[in-house]
Amino acid sequence: MNRPTTSTGLLGDSTARDYSRKLALFNACAAPELRQAIASLALTRGMRILDAGCGTGEALGWLRDAVGDEGSVVGLELAAAHAVAARSSVSAHTLIVQADVLKPPLADAAFDLIWCVNTINHLRDPVIGIERLVSLLRPGGRLALAQSSLLPDMYFAWDSRLERVVNEAVRAYYRGRYRLDERELTAIRSMVGVLRKANMSDVTARTFVIERVAPLSASDQAYLLEAIFQDTWGERLRPYLSDDDYIEVSRLCDPRSPGFALHRPDFHFLQTLTVVVGKP
User: Fold this and answer.
1) What is the share, in percent, of the chain residues with pLDDT greater than 90?
2) Higher local confidence (pLDDT), 229 or 13
3) Mean pLDDT in the chain?
């Protein structure tokens, strides 16, 4: 069943793409909120669950804990490197399928719940993606979409003007990198509307806040430094910032700098995680 695909999504996703380190860093940092979100679904033992877009697989174990040995959890992931990482993080009893969520080699009506995090917004047509996933649900099943940063920006307790221009620079970078109009990136904020366009009923939404203050844990520091300061920001933002703003951002993001943000006693960070649930 491990049939790869070469499909490429809206944000450059393909079988060959690998950002497994960034996924693992986010999952380690946001583990308390992700587990709280899973708990809010009131899963029961014996349920069959699909993690669609399972990434590096950390949530598979949390889902497995909820359904027990009587239940089952399957991970579905497009990228080969991510699927390999997921297989290394779960027991041999958890099936990881490398395939496109639009073409899953899975039986229809096989799952009681589909858990899908930071995935639907990567599709060119999210409604079609939801309709395909819904076909995998048993009667009475549910689809749970989770999205980090439903609020469009991360928030840091520093100069609000600098924070604003950095967030604008990030959006400009991604529009240029993927040759997208900003209107093509709205799926990250329209999960309720997308579910209703796909004729889902009993649609509910709940937002969890990933909030961190100094001093930070090792996993929080690693996520913020590597995934945000170095990967999402860093040199790639230089063309989108003034020289003075780039120098100031670099000072905040450099562990060697006396002003390194993660060592500041006033460090305060906010990011959201929104879960929208619906039934066919």
Assistant:
1) 80
2) 229
3) 92
Which of 254 and 3 is assigned the larger pLDDT? 254
pLDDT at 6 over 50: no
Amino acid, single-letter form, for residue 252: L
Q: Does domain 20-151+181-211+271-279 have CATH number 3.40.50.510?
A: no
Domain ranges of the chain: 20-151+181-211+271-279, 155-178+212-269
